[in-house]
Design the sequence.
C-alpha cells in the first residue's frame, strides 16, 4: 500500500531536522565525497523503510545514527582495515600530551585558543587514514563507547582504543600544524617527566 | 594498586581513558587529584576535551545540507511512490 503524502511529510518533518548531524556522521565515517552523500541518502531510505520500528519517544538522532552506522558497515566499509598500530593506547595518550606540551611552548596552542577549530577539524578528519577515522567517528561523533565500537567493527576493545587514541593524536597534530601555519611558529620538542 | 599520587607521565598515559570516563574509580580519582594540582596536565586534558567538542560539532556547510535535503526528499518520494 502506498503511504499517504501526510505520512511522508511527517517523516521528513521529524527526520530531516537531523540532516546536518547525519551528514557530519556519514562524512566522518566514510570520508568526504560521493560515498558520504550516498550514505546519507541510504540512511534516510533505510529509516523510511524501517519507520514502523521507530518509537517516537526515542531519540530520532540516535536512531538515525544507528541506521547510518549499520549502512556504513554493511555497504561502505572497506574490508581491508588492517593497520599496524600496536597495542599501545597509553603511549598514544602520552604522545598526545607531549605534542600539546610542545605546542604550549611554541605558542601554537595559545593561537588555537582564538580560532574556530571547525574548518580545521573537517580538513584533518579527511586526511587521517580510514581505519583511524572510522573509530573516531563512531566514538567521538556517534557517541559509541569502546565496547559498542568494538562490536560494530568486529575488533577487540583494545584495538578500538589503540586506533581511537592514534586517530585523535593525528587530528591534534593536524590542528597544531594548522595553528603553526597560521602563525609561522616552529615546533619544538618537550619532555614530560 | 594505584598510587594516590601519580606523576605527570602516569597521568597523561591515562589522558584519553580519563576524558572518555573509561577509568576504574580509584584510577580516575588519582588522575583527578593530579589534575587538581598540576596546571600542565590539566591544560592537556582541557585541550583534549576542546578538540573532542570540535570533532562532535564540526560544521556542515548550509549549501551542502540544502543540496542533500533535496536529494533525500527526491529519493524518499520515489521510494514512497513505489509503495
Sequence:
Amino acid at each position: 500500500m502506498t503511504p499517504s503524502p501526510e505520512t511522508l511529510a511527517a517523516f521528513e518533518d521529524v527526520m530531516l531536522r537531523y540532516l546536518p548531524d547525519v551528514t557530519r556522521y556519514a562524512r566522518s565515517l566514510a570520508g568526504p565525497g560521493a560515498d558520504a552523500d550516498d550514505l546519507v541518502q541510504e540512511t534516510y531510505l533505510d529509516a523510511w523503510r524501517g519507520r514502523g520500528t521507530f518509537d517516537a519517544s526515542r531519540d530520532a538522532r540516535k536512531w538515525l545514527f544507528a541506521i547510518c552506522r549499520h549502512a556504513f558497515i554493511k555497504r561502505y566499509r572497506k574490508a581491508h582495515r588492517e593497520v599496524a598500530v600496536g597495542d599501545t593506547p597509553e603511549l598514544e595518550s602520552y604522545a598526545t600530551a607531549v605534542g600539546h606540551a610542545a605546542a604550549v611552548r611554541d605558542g601554537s596552542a595559545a593561537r588555537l585558543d582564538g580560532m574556530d577549530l571547525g574548518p580545521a577539524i573537517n580538513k584533518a578528519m579527511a586526511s587521517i587514514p580510514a581505519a583511524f577515522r572510522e573509530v573516531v567517528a563512531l566514538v567521538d561523533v556517534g557517541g559509541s563507547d569502546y565496547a559498542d565500537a568494538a562490536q560494530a567493527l568486529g575488533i577487540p576493545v583494545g584495538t578500538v582504543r589503540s586506533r581511537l587514541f592514534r586517530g585523535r593524536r593525528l587530528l591534534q597534530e593536524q590542528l597544531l600544524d594548522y595553528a603553526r601555519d597560521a602563525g609561522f611558529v616552529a615546533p619544538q620538542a618537550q619532555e614530560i617527566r | 594498586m594505584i598510587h594516590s599520587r601519580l606523576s605527570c607521565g602516569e597521568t597523561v598515559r591515562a589522558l584519553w581513558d580519563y576524558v572518555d570516563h573509561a577509568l576504574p574509580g580509584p584510577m580516575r580519582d588519582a588522575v583527578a587529584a593530579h589534575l587538581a594540582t598540576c596546571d600542565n596536565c590539566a591544560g592537556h586534558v582541557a585541550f583534549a576535551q576542546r578538540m573532542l567538542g570540535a570533532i562532535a560539532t564540526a560544521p556542515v556547510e548550509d549549501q551542502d545540507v540544502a543540496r542533500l535535503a533535496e536529494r533525500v526528499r527526491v529519493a524518499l518520494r520515489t521510494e514512497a511512490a513505489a509503495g
